[in-house]
Amino acid sequence: MSENDTARTRAWVVHPDIPASSNRREPEYALAEAKSLALALPGIEVFGGDVVRLPKPHPGTLFGKGKIEELKALIEGQEIDLLLIDGPVSPVQQRNLEKALGLKLLDRTGLILEIFSDRAATREGVLQVEMAALSYQRTRLVRAWTHLERQRGGLGFVGGPGETQIEADRRAIDDQLVRLRRQLEKVVKTRALHRAARAKVPLPIVAFVGYTNAGKSTLFNRLTGADVMAKDMLFATLDPTMRKIELSDNGPEVILSDTVGFISDLPTELVAAFRATLEEVLAADLICHIRDISHPESEIQAEDVQTILEGLGVKKDTPHIEVWNKADQVAQEDKAAVANQAGRADDVHLVSALTGEGIDGLIEAIAIGLAGHTREEEMVLGYSDGRKRAWLYEKGLVQSEEQGEDGFHLTVKWNPHQAALFEKM
User: Fold this and answer.
1) Annotated binding residue at 327?
2) Which residue of 148, 224, 235, 302 is 20 to 30 Å from 162, comparing CA positions?
3) Quick one: which residues bind Mg(2+) (predicted)?
4) Which of 335, 326, 361 is nearest to 347 (CA)?
């Protein structure tokens, strides 16, 4: 066994199947997703996992005595270092389980926070994750939080300096939260300046949203020629990426925005923390909802995405296009039916970001969707408003012009961004 192998953390994943919960996912798919989450964290080796049916969760230990004894035997026999629970675990349950099993435990929220901390690349992303993690840890009576002094990625739940510290000083956490908020305010001001600079170039924004690992970044790279990290991995993209592209030869220029993938039961701490990062989605002229149409629970994933978008405050009247991605992974016997289903809807497009199938039709649909978002208006500009008139012509917005006694009578065709920019002149 190599040195790298010995350094890996052996994890066991448990998905509690609770009939009374609102979870609509099939247990086996939920367990598979939880394993993928674990694999998205460097240094984790998923030894295995199982579904545990819980008619009624135990308030103190989540699982009953028999299951705890079974887990303990498995942990000792297979030298498991970390237990991952695919669901919420209360601080009391976590403390009692860690004591009974003799190892570290992460619930779904803790695991996602750990992944986000490891992946965040921008200053804003790092600050947002730190704040979300501290808010989460503040409710935990037994957590390590000296990761604030670490130099490596991750939150310190799995390993690293300070992992044996038992209690977090609540006052120190509050002080750190205050400092982080101040730092984040400065970064947010910088982002506001960047948005103001982009507003001077009034291009429509097309935002890619979707469930994690739906292929957003692969599609983004194909359309823009960018090199955004695109892997068959949950949360491969965390920090938003924006690129200006021309949709086709002599076609309209747009700004494409690639965003963090959503997931069911996304921790509320992260939804709040990443709200600022997702401002481009709120301001988008067109939203492309990327779906992994080959996934057996694609429909449920789509509903989860819509729920999160509504929670973020995305306007319902913002034009949407559904992009059914990964057509190349649909079983051959099912592909004709999927293609027919997509073809019956005006706003659904079957594509493969990997092979390029359906991309030309998607580009055309984006252009048409944005064109539908523009409107024609008539206005009168005084003869002294030469600067405004020149700007309209420079942007190619003037459809017709006549001169009258009171000035230039113009018909312009523009989108809301262009109209808002004109009003500020």
Assistant:
1) yes
2) 235
3) 217, 237
4) 361
Q: Which of 40-49, 123-132, 305-314 is modeled with the greatest confidence? A: 40-49
The H or E element that residue 50 is part of is strand 44-53
Annotated ligand binding at 101? The verdict is: no
261 appears as a binding residue in the annotation: yes
258 is in an annotated binding site: yes
Least confident of 52-56, 187-191, 353-357: 187-191
238 a known binding residue? yes
294 marked ligand binding residue: no
What are the structure tokens assigned to 140, written together? 């935990």
Q: Is 155 annotated as a binding residue?
A: no
Fold identical between 3-111 and 201-371?
yes
The reply, when asked if residue 212 is annotated as ligand binding, is yes
pTM of the model: 0.73
Query: Annotated binding residue at 197?
Result: no
- Do the annotations mark residue 340 as ligand-binding? no
Residue 236 annotated in ligand binding: yes
User: Left if phi > 0, otherwise alpha if psi is -120 to 50, otherwise beta: which for 356?
Assistant: left
Across the range 262-279, mean pLDDT stands at 68
CA gap 157, 234 in Å, rounded: 19
What are the tens digits of pLDDT across the range 320-359? Answer: 899 999 999 999 899 999 999 998 887 899 999 999 999 9
Instruction: State the CB neighbour count (10 A cutoff) for residue 111.
Output: 26
Q: What is the pLDDT of residues 149-178, one digit of tens each?
A: 433 445 555 554 444 344 446 778 888 889
259 exposure class (CB count in 10 Å sphere: 0-12, 13-18, 19+): buried
Picking from 201, 210, 271, the residue whose alpha carbon sits closest to that of residue 235 is 210
pLDDT at 203 over 80: no
201-371 maps to CATH 2.60.120.200: no
23 is in an annotated binding site: no
| CATH superfamily entry for domain 3-111 | GTPase HflX, N-terminal domain (3.40.50.11060)
Is 216 known as a binding-site position? yes
Q: Assign residue 377 a region (left: φ > 0; alpha: ψ between -120 and 50; beta: otherwise).
A: beta
Residue ranges per structural domain of the chain? 3-111, 120-190, 201-371, 375-423
